[in-house]
Design goal:
Distance between the termini: 128 Å
Oligomer: single chain
Number of strands: 17
Length: 332
C-alpha cells in the first residue's frame, strides 16, 4: 500500500515540475514559426517583426532596379526631346532633258540640233535637327538642307519657323541653320571621346513621317571610331543599334544623362530601306569644331600636312615585318 502511494506522489511531482518548466521557460514568449508557400502577403510574428518571403524580396529588388532604369529614359524624353526639331526642306532638282532624238546619230545624219534644255522638279526632304543654343542655332546634316529653297523648322510645341542656312560642310555632312524664336530649349553638349562600347544611348528624331516627330528609340553604342564610306563624308562614326530610319538624319544621339554625343547621319540597310540595327552618328566632338567654324565664318577651315595616311592591313604588316597592325602608314 505504501509503495502505491509513493508511486502516485512521484507521478504528481513529475507533472508539477513539467508544468513549472513549461510556464517559466517556454510559455512566456513563444516564438512562432511561419511557413510560406510563395504567398505575396507580409505577416508579422508575435514581436511585431515583418516576415517577407525571400522570393518576394528578390522580386521587389528587381522591380525597383527596373523602375530606376525606366526613369532614366523617361527623363531623357522629358529633357532632351524638346531640343530636337523636325526639318522639312523644299528642294528644286534640275535634270538634263534628253529624248531619243538627242542622240549623236540623229544629230549627225538628220541634222537635229542638240537639246540642252533642263527639266526641274520640286521635292520635299524630311529630316531632324538639334537646337544647340538659346540664340536659335540648329545643328543638322548637310544632306537635309543642301540646295534648299525653303526650310521649315517645327518645334515640339508645334511652333513653325522658316530657317536660314548659316553654313554647310559636305565633307562631314554637317550644317548649321538658324531660326528667330524665343523660349527655346537647347540641348547640353556631351563629350563623345568619353564614350565606351556598350553604353546605353537614345536616338531622337522624325523617322519616315512628320507625324512621327520626336520618336525616341534606345540601344547601345555598338562601336566607336568606325571608319565607313558614306558618300563623300570622312571621319570616324559612332555605331549604334538604336533604331534610326530615313527622317532621323540630323537628329540627336544622347547618352543616359541626356547629353548630345552624336548627330545621326546614316544607316546600313542591307539593300532595303528600313533599319536593321546598324546606324551611324557623327561624334559631337567633331561636330563642335565644324559648328564653331560655320557660325563664326560660314565655312570650315582645314589644315593640310601634305601626307597620305593608310590603314595597315595584313599584307602591309607582313611586308614591313611589323609585329602588330596597330597604327597607320604615313606616306608623302
Amino acid at each position: 500500500m505504501r509503495l502505491k502511494i509513493k508511486n502516485v506522489l512521484g507521478i504528481i511531482a513529475l507533472l508539477l515540475i513539467g508544468i513549472f518548466i513549461g510556464t517559466h521557460f517556454i510559455g512566456n514568449n513563444p516564438d512562432r514559426v511561419v511557413i510560406y508557400e510563395n504567398k505575396s502577403d507580409i505577416s508579422k510574428d508575435t514581436r511585431g517583426m515583418n516576415i517577407i518571403p525571400a522570393s518576394q524580396s528578390q522580386n521587389n529588388d528587381a522591380v525597383q532596379a527596373a523602375s530606376v532604369f525606366n526613369n532614366i529614359f523617361v527623363q531623357i524624353a522629358e529633357n532632351a526631346s524638346p531640343s530636337v526639331v523636325t526639318i522639312t526642306t523644299d528642294k528644286v532638282i534640275k535634270t538634263q532633258y534628253r529624248n531619243s532624238f538627242n542622240d549623236d546619230f540623229f544629230q549627225r545624219f538628220f541634222g537635229y540640233p542638240p537639246d540642252n534644255r533642263e527639266r526641274t522638279r520640286t521635292t520635299t526632304v524630311l529630316g531632324s535637327g538639334v537646337i544647340v543654343d538659346k540664340n536659335g542655332y540648329i545643328l543638322t546634316n548637310n544632306h537635309v538642307v543642301e540646295n534648299g529653297e525653303k526650310i521649315l523648322v517645327e518645334l515640339e510645341d508645334k511652333r513653325e519657323f522658316e530657317a536660314e542656312i548659316i553654313g554647310t560642310d559636305p565633307r562631314t555632312d554637317l550644317a548649321v541653320i538658324k531660326i528667330k524664336a524665343k523660349k527655346l530649349n537647347h540641348i547640353i553638349l556631351g563629350e563623345s571621346n568619353k564614350l565606351r562600347v556598350g553604353e546605353w544611348v537614345a536616338a531622337i528624331g522624325s523617322p519616315l513621317d512628320k507625324n512621327l516627330a520626336h520618336t525616341i528609340t534606345a540601344g547601345i553604342v555598338s562601336a566607336i571610331g568606325r571608319d565607313v564610306s558614306i558618300g563623300n563624308q570622312f571621319g570616324s562614326f559612332i555605331q549604334t543599334d538604336a533604331a534610326i530610319n530615313p527622317g532621323n538624319s540630323g537628329g540627336a544621339l544622347v547618352n543616359i544623362k541626356g547629353e548630345l554625343i552624336g548627330i545621326n547621319a546614316a544607316i546600313a540597310t542591307g539593300g532595303g530601306r528600313g533599319n536593321i540595327g546598324i546606324g551611324f552618328a557623327i561624334p559631337i566632338d567633331l561636330a563642335k569644331k565644324i559648328m564653331k567654324d560655320l557660325i563664326e565664318d560660314g565655312e570650315v577651315h582645314r589644315s593640310w600636312i601634305g601626307v597620305s595616311i593608310q590603314n595597315i592591313n595584313e599584307g602591309l604588316a607582313k611586308a614591313l615585318k611589323l609585329e602588330s597592325r596597330k597604327g597607320v602608314l604615313v606616306g608623302d
